[in-house]
Each structure stands twice: as structure tokens, then as C-alpha cells.
């Protein structure tokens, strides 16, 4: 074996406990590849850019199923392309936009793109190819399926170079072999924006997004939906993410969790076992952040140095369940500075956050002030959104939805530690049995056998608890 040399070394985050997939069996021989690629994008000399380009569906006139997708990263741009999301458009679309690209989140974005908010395929740094389960596919070409798509690409250009050209994108594989179920994709967590605030110098600060029961009651069919994969997303300050499921004010499951979140590992992850979400369930996305290396307030936003708290969930059968998010009342958050009288007429739908967030950024974040903001985050008033794929609201869900943080939601527990603690008796019993077993080897060998056996049991329990 020859030495790889100093120029071909590197590192990659992997999840050793990821459920195995028989990928060869998941891609039928009839599958056809189709690419959505950016067109010679001159990456702006900005640290972070979200670039959007429009595309038309493949030339298919009958229903097909998307069964696999994978990233195409232009050579030399691995450190520049951070993530890509392919959005489906469910509103009228101007075909002249097919020849142009736009900054996704500034005023130049055409209004016709606003209805392109239903994600279909996602890839982020650290991710790999994604295969749908053998009985599930994303519908293309049928009546009511989207004709137009938006590819959103996030570029990281910390050196603000002016010479980067990019043609990266997403490859799709679709097949005429229709599977049993159509897939859907839903976004849950917090709304992105300046109203999300993390004080400086905090070892662990929690922000939670709520998908409340009103939304799932309206959006999810009576028989429920089954989730089979998910992707977790924060930015650089994120350390842990949990997605908890409540029914009738009782915790019924932890849909997803990562207690060692890695910004450079954002793979779409398969669940070991599909999980059911019923109408009327609530989903709580808990994100924990470390800001010990930051001297000022961190706000929510699209830049890497800003923050998000979002989880995307793949499910079937497809329904209109697309976006279910919340934010803590700005009035509640700003009130920690003692400006209650000034905030009496604050209107989240009309008031710009800039004035208030600047005051928050200038504040001296003492332990007591930080503690009060954390209390507001976990006990305050929340605004909710519940949207279909075309960004329209469900008519049976009141707008705006305003509620207090659910009183029945308890603190996030260390799921693995709790599981291991509850199985501690298994380890203890095994050790006791080994103590009583007559082994003819010497004491050193006895200790090695016992230690090896206990180690295998603990590793097995950790695997079962993840």
C-alpha cells in the first residue's frame, strides 16, 4: 500500500450506528437519471449566498416515482457548496424565469417563486446519496404534481473570492414502476429570523420550535402518516437536537435525536423503525446551543454565524402537511429588558425587529438576564404557522395561532443515559454470573474475559438505545 501523501488526506464525519441499506435493491433497472444543475453561477463575493435557479420537470406525461437522488458537486467546490434543496412549485409559474438565477432571499426574487416552498429533495455537507424505501417514492408526472422546481444552493465563500464558477446540483432517478405509497416532506421547528436570540457565553441555551396539535389535526389524514427518514439542521453553535412527539399531553416517542450534532454531518438519516404521527399530535423540536466563544448576541438567520432550529421529515402517504413551525413571542423576549410599556402596541406582523434586536444586542447579558430570556423561551407565548406546499394556510386553522408553550412538555432527558440506566441490572446480573462461573484460567484471564463480556453488553445496549 502506497502512502497517500500530504495533499490527499482529510477527514469526514460518519454515523457508525446508521441503519444499513441494501442500496442495490432499492434502485430498479428501469430507473432514469435526470439532472438539475446550476448554470455557470458566478458565486458572489459574499460570505454566505443562497442562490435559486428554476427548472422544468423531465418530459414525462404519466406518473413516475422518484426513488433516489444524489449530489453533483463541481470539482474544486466541495468547500463552497454547503447545501442544496430542490423545491416543488404548486402555483402558476413564469417560464421566463427558467433562464435566470436569483438571490433567494432578497428583493430581486420574483413573486412567482413564493409558491415554490415545498421541499422534495435535500442534500447538505456530509450527506450522501438518498434512496427511498422499496414501497415509497416521490410522485412525478401525475395530475397535480409539480411542473416547475427551484434549486436552492447555499454557497459559503468566507474569503469572498470573485473567481468561483459553479455548476453543482442534484441528480434524480425516477421509474415508471409505481410503488405503493407517495412520499411527502414536512418542515418542523422554529421560524427563521431575527426574533430567535441566543445570549453570549452560554454553555447550553435551549430554543424549541412547536408543531402544535391544531396543525397536525388539519394536515394529517385520519389514519396518520409514517415517518421513515429525517435531517436535522442548525448552524455552528448547535450542539444537540431532539424531536419529541406528544399525544394527549403525553410523550409517546422521540422521533429523532442527536446529542453530538456536527455541522459538517447533515445526512438524511433513516429511522431504524418507521414511526406514526397521528392527527392531533404535537411535535417539539428542541435545539441546544453553545455560545461560549461568542461575545455578542446570536440571532436567527441564514448566515453560518446566525442560527436555525429545523428538522425535515420524510413521510408517507403524502398529504398537505408541509410546514409547521413557531417562534416565541418577540414581546415576551424583548420584555426581559423591562420595556413592557413600550411594547404594549408591538405587532409581530407589522413591526420590524431591527430596533428591538439592536437593543437586545447592546444589553449586558448577566446571568440573571440570560436566565430570564431562557425562561421566556420555555414558558412564553408562541406564534405558529401551519402551511401547505403552496405556502397557503389551512382554512380550518386560525391565523395567527397564538398559544403558550405547552405546560405538559417536560425537560429534555439524555435518552441514551436513561436507557442505559434502566438496563443497568442486565450488566450487573451478567457480572455476578461471571463472578460465580468457574473458569480454569488464571485471574488475569478471568478479568479479561469478564471485561470483554461486559464491554460487548454495554456496546449492544448503546446500539439498542440510539
Write up this protein.
The chain is α+β, with helices and mostly antiparallel strands and 466 residues long. It is built from 8 helices and 26 strands. The strands form 6 sheets. Strands 20-17-23-14-24-25-26 form a 7-stranded mixed sheet. Strand 18 and strand 19 (250-258) form a beta hairpin. It is globular and about 60 Å long.
Uncertain residue ranges: 437-441, 458-464
Strand adjacency order, main sheet:
20-17-23-14-24-25-26
Number of helices: 8
- Report the portion of residues in β strands: 25-35%
Shape: globular
Radius of gyration, Cα only, in angstroms? 24 Å
What does the secondary structure layout of this molecule look like, with pairings?
Elements: H1 23-26, E1 32-37, E2 41-42, E3 48-56, E4 64-72, E5 81-88, E6 101-103, E7 118-124, E8 130-131, E9 136-140, E10 148-156, E11 165-166, E12 169-175, E13 181-182, E14 184-190, E15 197-198, E16 205-211, H2 213-219, E17 225-233, E18 238-247, E19 250-258, E20 269-277, E21 282-289, E22 298-299, E23 310-316, E24 323-328, H3 330-334, H4 354-362, H5 367-379, E25 381-387, E26 401-404, H6 415-422, H7 424-436, H8 443-465
Parallel strand pairs: 9-13, 14-24
Antiparallel strand pairs: 1-12, 2-11, 3-6, 3-10, 4-8, 4-9, 4-12, 5-7, 5-10, 14-23, 15-22, 16-21, 17-20, 17-23, 18-19, 18-21, 24-25, 25-26
